[in-house]
Every structure is written in C-alpha cells, then in structure tokens.
Specification:
- There is one protein chain.
- This protein has 14 helices and 14 strands.
- By secondary structure, it is an alpha/beta fold.
- About 40% of the residues lie in helices and about 15% in strands.
- The strands form three sheets. An eight-stranded mixed beta sheet has the order 2-9-8-7-6-3-4-5.
- It folds into two domains: about 120 residues, Aspartate Aminotransferase, domain 1; about 220 residues, Aspartate Aminotransferase, domain 2 (3-Layer(aba) Sandwich).
Length: about 375
C-alpha cells in the first residue's frame, strides 16, 4: 500500500471529540463515526496551500467542486445531477433537521426505520413531529427496514419517510428492488423522502453498488432530498463539508427558506478539502476500503467466537452493529466501557441490547480493544 493505515497517530491530547471523551482513562474509544486514519495527502496539501494565502473571508462553493460532484454522481452512480439542485451545508446533521422542518408541518408525522443513526429521531423530536417507527429486521444476514410492519398504523398525517443508505447502524447497502419497494411505499402514502447517503463511498462487500434513491426514476427524484458528504469517506468530518441534492424546485425553496439566518455557509477550508478529496483522493480511498475490509472480516470472525455476542457483516460503512442480548448484563455499553472499551450504546439508536463499534482504526488498536472485550466476556 502507498498509504499507511497502520500508522498510530496520538489523538489523546488533541481536540478530538472521540478521544477526549475518555481523557486520561484507560479506555479505547471505538464509538463515534470518526476514523483514526490520517486524511489523504492531497487534502492536507490543498489546505496548506490555502492557509498560506492568508486571507479567510466569506467564500462560495467553487465551480470546480460542483463540477466534480456532478461528474462523480454520473460516473459512479449513473445519476444525472443538475448544478441548481445543490445546496451546500456545513454538516449533514443540519441537513436532516432542515429536511424535517421544511418538508413537514407541526401536526404532521415522519416514518423512521429503527434502530437508526440518532440524529434522525432527534430531529423529529426537536421539531415536535410525530414518529412512526419501522423495525429493522435481520434477513439472511442483512438488516432491512420492514415498512409493512408499520403500514397499517399510518393515519395520513405522515408526510416524510427517512432513509439511511448504507444504513447506520448495520451497514446494509440497499439493492435496487429494495429501494423500489421503499419508493412504492412512499407513493402509496404520498410521502416525501429524505435519504442520508453519507456512507455511499464506503462499500466493503465485493459486487455491491450504491444506488441513490433519487436516481430510481423521475418520481423518486421529485419527491426526495438526498444528503451526501465527503466527510466520513476521507475523515474530514471536523471541517463540515456536506450538501443536499434537491431536484424539485418547490422543495428546494422550502429547504433554503428554512435555513435562512440559522444555518451558516460552508467554511472556506471545508470547500478546499472537499474539492481535493473528490478530485485527487481515489487511490487513497481504494486503499482505505481494502484495509477496512480486512478489519471487518477479522472483527466479524473474532466477535462471533465470543459467547453472548453476534455480529452480522456490514456491507458498507466502518461501523459494526453487535448483538449483545445474550450477555447476562443489563447495559452492554457500560459493561464494555468498564472493561476499557468505549462503544456507542445501542439505546441511542433504538435498541439497548446492542452496541456499535467503529473499526475505522489501525488493526493493532482494534485487536487490543476486542481482546479487552473478550477478556470481559470470558471472565463473566
């Protein structure tokens, strides 16, 4: 490999949110979705050049960034995106909240798969919207949203369906027929769709492809808001470069109006980092994916050897969703934290019987963390 993903970078005494949680504690942080890999050299060099310029006034989206994104969508996902569809954002979570507030009213509801990335349900709660929860079920080793389970409960006040593809947690990459089923559900109930596709480039399973929901057909396009970002892919989440793709001009105007005066513009350095990532970062990404596949495969085999734990193989993301319901412990996250491993509690996603583990780290750190987990499980 040209890039060293085994490199150990000391983040304990940095401004890392991930590592500061356990500052001066003997706990390995494998929780929040932030990898421990050095970002690609092309991004670092581009940022250094921009900083050397020395002036950091208000910026605007570089035309090159728009062109790169449009070309990327066409080449990788066969999705023809128009430049006027793009709304640049300082973070994907703000996009989720804007979508909830722009696309639903105070007395309306949202259909949300669960377990799911916590900001989805937090956005609904924060806006005071009703929630209908569709369970994620394990089907042949893949976590899938069971929309049929919630269909009879709908009352007609529901106006928005939330998707996460690849799904977080669980790592499912939805197939075309599965997305078409979700589109049919949205059509039957006249729902708009917000699709979080932030992990779309992080596909680990050979032969699996990412299909943007909006690319299914013109109807899917016109009823959707798609959220994307290079942040997880290239480990630049702290810079806040994201965007919403909104083909329907009426929905786009509502979305933009909702952000006015509240959600700021994107930082000029974030624009620089995103441009460099999508222009020059492919070789680094290819090697990162190979490394992550190795971590995933090792982790799955090791976790499934441990009594009381089970892990399905994520097709995408660098996040493992570990079933700990057979452990004789009340709180799996606290149990492993006391053993020296910081994991995300499943309760935050919607199921306290699980924990989420971030394997986007050097293998040595991953092995040390999992061996601590093994020691705790076997001691019990």
């Amino acid at each position: 490999m040209a890039f060293n993903f085994d490199e150990s970078i000391d983040r304990r005494h940095s401004d890392s949110f991930k590592w500061q949680k356990y500052y001066e504690q003997n706990v390995i942080p494998l929780w929040v979705a932030d990898t421990d890999f050095r970002s690609p050299p092309c991004i670092i060099e581009a940022l250094q050049a921009r900083i050397a310029h020395g002036v950091f006034g208000y910026g605007f989206p570089p035309p090159e960034l728009t062109e790169l994104f449009i070309a990327r969508m066409a080449e990788r996902y066969h999705w023809r995106v128009q430049p006027e569809w793009l709304v640049f954002l300082p973070g994907l979570v703000s996009g989720i909240n804007l979508a909830v507030r722009a696309l639903t009213g105070p007395d309306e509801g949202i259909v949300i798969p669960t377990p799911i990335y916590p900001p989805f349900r937090a956005a609904a709660r924060g806006a005071g919207r009703r929630q209908r929860l569709a369970p994620m079920v394990l089907n042949d080793g893949r976590w899938l949203a069971d929309l049929a389970a919630v269909e009879t409960e709908l009352t007609g006040v529901e106006k928005l369906l939330m998707l996460c593809n690849p799904h977080n947690p669980g790592g499912t990459v939805y197939r075309r027929e599965e997305l078409q089923q979700q589109l049919a559900f949205a059509q039957r109930h006249d729902l708009l769709v917000c699709s979080d596709e932030i992990h779309c480039d992080l596909l680990l399973e050979p032969g699996v492809e990412h299909i943007p929901f909006a690319s299914l057909d013109s109807d899917a396009e016109q009823r959707s808001v798609t959220l994307m970002s290079p942040s997880k892919t290239f480990n630049i989440a702290g810079l806040g470069a994201s965007l919403a793709v909104i083909p329907n001009p009426r929905l786009r105007m509502r979305f933009i109006a909702q952000r006015s005066g509240i959600v700021p513009s994107v930082d000029v350095l974030a624009f620089v980092a995103a441009t460099a990532a999508w222009r020059d970062g492919q070789q680094w990404l290819d090697e990162q994916l190979a490394y992550l596949r190795g971590n995933r495969d090792w982790l799955r085999a090791r976790i499934n050897e441990l009594p009381g734990l089970h892990m399905a193989s994520p097709e995408g993301t660098y996040l493992a969703w570990i079933d700990a319901h057979e452990l004789a412990v009340e709180n799996p996250q606290r149990f492993f934290e006391q053993a020296g491993v910081g994991l995300s509690p499943g309760a935050e996603f919607g199921d306290p019987r699980f924990v989420r583990l971030n394997f986007g780290c050097p293998r040595a750190l991953l092995e040390e963390g999992v061996e601590r987990m093994a020691a705790a499980v076997n001691a019990g």
